[in-house]
Structures are given as structure tokens and as C-alpha cells.
Amino acid sequence: MSTKIMPISDLRRKTSDVVAAVRDAGDAVYITQHGRPVVVMVDYEHYERLVAQLEELSDRVSLQAAAAEPPRPSSVQRYPTVTPPASSLNAWKDLIPEGCGGDALADTEALYDEV
Fold first, then answer.
1. CA triplet 68, 72, 73: central angle to 5 degrees?
2. CA distance 104 to 112
3. Ordered domains of the chain (ranges, CATH)
4. Fewest 10 Å CB contacts: which of 7, 52, 57, 70?
5. What band does 31 get if pLDDT is binned at 50, 70 and 90?
6. Are 43 and 20 in contact (CB under 8 A)?
7. Which pLDDT does position 62 carry in this prediction?
């Protein structure tokens, strides 16, 4: 199967000839627009064979991936929740300036007032 490159303007003028060449000779024709490929014309039977091969290959790859992939543990097993002991937070208490309570806005204003 040979490959041809054709601007879309030529396709407009020679549509019947291009379709006949694709159908009879099995040529693939790359149609370009503004110098860039936009579509490929191929014989219908050739296209159907390509799609069937692609589906078969995709199925094979999916089966191989499923067989090769180890089973995943549930999210509960993967990310256990552990509560840190209260004693581990004592070091952080020393970093909080005196006078800061539980109000984040007031605490932030108090920190800026000190500067």
C-alpha cells in the first residue's frame, strides 16, 4: 500500500479520482489543510481490519494488565488512622506566644501588634 499526501483543495477538485485510487489500489491518502495533515483516507475493508486488530490488541493488553496487577488492599488497610499522643504536642505549645487563645483572627492580630 503506497502513501500519498494531498492538499484538501486537490481533493475538492479530484474527489472521484482519489476515491477510485484508494478503493482500487489500496492507497492511503493523507489530506492536508494549511500544510498539516488532518485526515487519512483508506479503503473501507482496510479500515475495518485495522479497527478489529486494534480492538483485539486492546483486549489482550487489558487482560495482561489485569493479570499482572497485584490486588490492592482496601483504603482502610492502606491509610490507617493513628491518633498522636497528646505528649507529642507539648513542644508546639512553647511556640505559641502568651495571650493567644483559640480565636485565629484575634491571635493573628495580636502577633502583628507585637511586631
1. 155
2. 12
3. 3-68 (3.40.1620.10)
4. 70
5. very high
6. no
7. 78
55 membership: H or E segment, kind and range: helix 44-68
Side by side, the strands of the sheet bearing 36-41 are: 3-7, 28-33, 36-41
Give the Cα separation of 49 and 54 in Å (integer).
9
Query: Which tens digit of pLDDT belongs to each residue from 32-68?
Result: 999 999 999 999 999 999 999 999 888 888 777 777 7
Decide if 22 contacts 28 (C-beta within 8 A).
yes
The per-residue pLDDT for 25 is: 87
Mean pLDDT score across all residues of the chain = 78
Alpha carbons 69 and 51: distance in angstroms, whole number: 27
Cell of 45: 475493508
